[in-house]
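User: Please predict the structure of the protein below. I'd like the answer in C-alpha cell form so I can feed it into my own downstream comparison script.

Assistant: Understood. Taking the following sequence of 211 residues as input:
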Amino acid sequence: MLTLCQYGKNLYFSRLLGKKGSWIQIRRQVGIDRNIIDDIKKGKKESFKIFFNDFYPVLCLFAEKFLRNEEQSKDVAQEALIKFWEKREEFSELKSARKFLYIVVKNDCLNILKKPKASGDLSEIEEVASESFLKQHIIKQETFFLVRKAVESLPERMRQVVEHSMLGLKNAEIAEQMGISPLTVHTAKKNAYRKLRETLKNVKVLLAAFF
C-alpha cells in the first residue's frame, strides 16, 4: 500500500464538479459506511478505528498545507481525531464530524504558526487563516479521500498496478515487480482507469497523474 505522502504527493486534483448530493452518491460508491457516526457515538471502537484510518491521512495532508512539516502535521491530525472521539456523543452525522475535524486542525495549525519559534511570517499566517484558503484545501483533501477510497476498492491486481504507477514506475518495471507481462500491466491500467472514471464520474479529477 502507498504511504500517506506517496498518496498525497502523487495525486493532482482540480475543483469539484457536481450537483447537490453528489458527495453522498460518490461516498456510497466507494463504500463509506453511512452509519459509522452512529456506531462511534455508541462508543464502538472498531468503527472509530475504521474512521481514523480513513480520515487520518486526509487530515495529515490538510495540516501539512499550513505547517509544511510532516511530523507536526501527523501530530495535529492525531490530536484532532482524539478530540473527536472524546466529543463523539455530540455528533449525529458525518458532515458535522468532518467540519469539526477540519476546524480543529486549522485552529491547531494556526496556533503553532503563531508561536515565536514558528518559521511562518505574518503574511503567511494571514494567508492560511483566510476562508478561501480553508475552502480550497478542504476541497482538495476531500477529493483526495474519495480517490484513495476508489483506488482501494479496485480488484487487487488493478490496485497494485495503479499504486506502482503512482510511484512513477513504468510498465516494464511494474511487470517485473509483480511477475506479470507488460501487456497485462497495460490492460490492468486501462481497466482500472475505466473503473475509476465510472466511480468518480461526479468529480473532476486529473486521472492522468496516475498513468
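That's the full C-alpha cell string. The radius of gyration is 18 Å.
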